[in-house]
Every structure is written in structure tokens, then in C-alpha cells.
Amino acid sequence: MTEMAERFVSPTARSATGVDVVIVGAGFAGIAMAVALQRAGRDHFTILERASALGGTWRDNTYPGVACDVPAHLYGLASHPNPYWSGLYARGDEIWRYLEGVAEREGLGDRIRFNTPMTGARWDDDEDLWRVETPTGAVTANTLVLACGRLTEPRIPDIPGLETFPGPMFHSSRWDHSADLAGRRVAVVGSGASAVQLSPELAKIADVTLFQRTPAWIVPRGAHPYTDADRDRLATHPEELARLRAELYAEGEARFASRSGDAEASATAKATALAHLQTQVPDPALRAVLTPDYAFGCKRVLLSDDFYPAVSSGAIRLVPSALAAVEGTTVVASDGSRHETDALVLATGFATTRQPYADLVHGEGGESLAVHWFEGMTSFGSTIVSGFPNLFILDGPNAALGHSSSILMIEEQAAYTVRGLVERDRAGGVLRVDPGAEAAYTDEIADAAASTPWLTGGCRNWYVDERSGRLTLLWPGTVDAFRARLARADGSEFVHVRAARAVKGVT
Predict the structure, then answer these.
(1) H helix or E strand, kind and range, residue 327
(2) Containing domain of residue 212, as a range?
(3) What is the pLDDT of residues 420-470, one digit of tens each?
(4) Could you tell me which of 234, 306, 219, 199 has the C-alpha nearest to residue 268?
(5) Max alpha carbon distance in the chain (Å)?
(6) Residue 204: CB atoms within 10 Å
(7) pLDDT of 62-94, one tens digit each?
(8) 70 touches 404 (CB < 8 A)
(9) In degrees to the nearest 10, what's the CA dihedral of 388, 484, 72, 92?
């Protein structure tokens, strides 16, 4: 636990049994929700956090080279601009410290219950409230907000013999800093965002072999540091900081066209990526195995200036094949090649389309979110779900972005949640989502996504649920479009509102 987190630990004696809102998760989404509630004058809430510190993704991911692919001044809460980022793209530890700073400035310390996972949540049909189970007892609440994140549970591949590997083995999001990898033969499994960031750094101290099942489209990162003068100017001239954020926002919105399949924009972006590859990898044979055979934008587009040079120089030994088996210290690729290995790093992504919390949350009649989502996640407004009264989900169904900052989406969802609470109070206490509104929104998403590379680009990606073939993670539009869509929500998405009994302890 960090020193900052220690100051945030709630006294055991304070654990309330009844609150107006329970927020599950103290990452970006949970902190953003808490900020929105406090600024709306809604102070009767608590945050349940399973770990010993806040931060979510940026607490968990500590691998070498971890950083954000979104410009730093766009990757923060609008209510908490930060003029002191070290450069155009922030390091992971910087973002973690930023979140701790936000929590401290907002006075969230005594509202976060650390080491308190949600082990279950059930809507009480008789009492019209949520009963949230934790290892230290139940918490009752009028409203439940799931801010659990979507990249939290590592996906461990099913590889024969993997469990028998005798050396250090860990997922990139659970980096084992006690493992001495200097001078060792390290196999990195995967070639997505984490692998592309960590492999060049790891190659500075270790003999790295990378198993690439599918190459990624990679464009120049173009990162540059901010000088002390830059930071001082932004700190003393907030209008310049606001203008910079607006410029970065506009650039992000413009990127949507190339990611979503606009022919001209996609061709331009693809040409940029191919030129980047050709410039940094002179060997045509190596370039060939690093060139994707699917549409630009079909998978997450990566940013890097050092991955290709590390592969081209031989600092990273590239195996253009998936890992197929592990036999003691020998790892075997799908192409039959065998490689002696001292340590295994699994940069294999996360459980995304099947969120782990879905099995824990039960709505009206006892149905779980997992059952409701048996053919893929659905919602209205990417935030609320029929059959689950007074439940709001941040960063869940169709709330991720492939072109800009997910924080922008989270802030819109938090604002929508606050509006929902106002409607809940006005209408009598219980908000039930119209199943027809959820179905119509799901159809909207399907229509908007139908011709995009995410569905037609010839790749497998973590945005699409394989059970239904629907796009369930990404919002298939701009941030402006999402804001406009939520702004059009006039309350008609809710039905069957009836007065709820007061939760004990809530005034």
C-alpha cells in the first residue's frame, strides 16, 4: 500500500450498513463517480475497493515501460486538470499518483473501504434496495454503481503444459518485481499494447523472444517531454491548459474516421503505419511478418517508436507464431520451433466481453447480469440495464473508445448517473429500465457498427463478443455523438417507477 493510500484507509468502526449509493471500484470510473456525486451535493455514498490502494489499471500495471497511449492532458478529469504531466504521454506511475491526488483533494479518504471486494450483490424485491455482500458484512444501498473496469481480470491462455513451467511466470498486469530477469531468456507471449511497450524495455536487460500470433498496426508515438517552462506556463495560465485540452480533444475526435472505416482516412492512416514500418525495419522478410493482413482499425492501433527498432536490431527475437505448448523449460511455437526459456511473461490481455462482476450481480427475480448478457452485454446508454433497478455501470457495455480517451466517456456516464438519481428521487425511489429502450439502443449500436472494421475487417478483436458476433465493448461513434445521445435521454428509458422503502440509516 502506498503512503497516500494508507492515509485513505477508513477506520473499521465507521463501516456503515446503509448508504444511498455504493460504488464498486476505486479506479478512474469510481473516483469520477464520487467526484460527480459530491459536486451534486450527494454525499451519502461509499466506495468498495478490493485492493489495498486505489488506482485500478494504473495500480495493477507496473511492467517496464507502462504508459498511456492517450495524450496526458486528455487522460484526466475535466474537473481536475493537471499542468504537471512529464510529457505528451504519461507514465503509469504518474497516472496513479494523479488519481491519488484527486482523491485527496476531494476528501474521499474516509469514503473508500480498501481490501473490501464485492462478493455478491442482490436486488431485494421486497425492500427495493441493493444488498451488497463483502467479506466484512453486507452493505445496503438505494443505488449500486459498478465501476469495476473492463481490463481487470488477466486472460490466461489455455496452453498445454503451461502450469508446469518451472521458472518465473506471470501476467504483464501482475508483474513480479522480485523475479531477477537480468541476463535471462525471457519469452513474451503476445504482441498487443502491453507487449509492444514492455518488450523493448525488457530487452535492455534480458534475452527476449516474443511470440506474435497476429501483428498489430503500429503508428509513430511521437512522444516528447514537457519542460519545466512548459509546466510552469500551463500552471500559471489555465486558459492555455484548457486550450491544449481542447486541441487534443479535437485531434482525438478526428481520429475516429480512420479507426471506424472511412475509406480516405483509413488509407491515410494505413500509409502512415506502413511508412513507419518500412523506415524502421529495413529487412523485407521481417517487414512481411510484421505487416497485418486485416483492415486498419480492426484491432487496437498501437503507438510505438521503439518496438520496431528493437525487433529489427535483434534485441527482440520475433517468432511469428502463437505459443502452442510448454515442455519444461522449452516453449514450443505453433510453427514447431522450440525455444529454451528461463521466464515467461504473459501479455495476453484481459477478460473483456465476459465481465467477471456479471456473475456476482443479481437483479429482479434473482437473474444475474451474466445470464442477462448470455449473448453479449447490452444496455441503454451504455450505462443502465433492464431487470436491474437503480443500477448504473460505468465503463461497461459499448463505453470504450478506439480513438480517444475513455475518461471522457466515464465523465459523461457519471453525469448521466447523477441525472438518473435526480429522476429516481423525483419519481419515487426506484428506476426500472424499459426493456424496449435497451433493445432499441442495442439495435442502434448494431446498425452503427455493421460496416466498421471492428466487424468486417477480417480480424479477431476483444471488442466483439464471439457468442453473438456483436460489438459489445466499443462505442461506435465519436465522444460528441455519445454526449448527444445521453443528452437525448429524457427519462422515457425508465418504466414502472414506484416508491421505495427508505434504507435504514439513510436520511
Answers:
(1) strand 323-327
(2) 162-217+262-346
(3) 999 999 878 899 999 999 999 999 999 999 999 999 999 999 999 999 999
(4) 219
(5) 70
(6) 12
(7) 999 999 999 999 999 999 999 999 999 999 999
(8) yes
(9) 10
206 and 129 together in one domain = no
Report whether 300 contacts 193 (CB < 8 A): yes
CA distance 493 to 384: 9
What DSSP letter does each residue of 190-216 carry, written as one string? --SHHHHHHHHHHTTTSEEEEE-SS--
Q: What are phi and psi of 274, to 5 degrees?
A: -70, -35
| CB distance 407 to 477 below 8 Å | no
- Residue 123 host element (H or E): strand 120-124
Splitting the chain (507 residues) into consecutive groups of 10 residues, what average pLDDT does each group show? 36 52 98 98 97 97 97 98 98 98 96 98 96 96 95 91 97 97 98 97 98 98 96 98 98 98 98 98 98 97 98 98 97 98 96 91 97 97 98 97 97 98 90 97 98 97 95 98 97 69 41
Q: Which helix (H) or strand (E) holds 330?
A: strand 330-333
Q: Answer yes or no: is 235 within a domain.
A: no
Query: Cβ atoms within 10 A of the Cβ of 294, count?
Result: 17
CATH of the domain at 273: 3.50.50.60
Asked whether the beta carbons of 387 and 364 are under 8 A apart, the reply is yes
79 within 8 A of 39, measured Cβ to Cβ:
yes
Residues 253 and 267: their CA atoms lie apart, in Å, by: 17
Give dist(CA 307, CA 503) in Å, integer.
54
The answer to whether position 490 is within a domain reads yes
- The C-alpha atoms of residue 124 and residue 504 are separated, in whole angstroms, by 14
Co-location of 312 and 375 in the same domain: no
The domain tally of the chain equals: 2
Q: Are 70 and 18 in contact (CB under 8 A)?
A: no
Residue type, 289: V
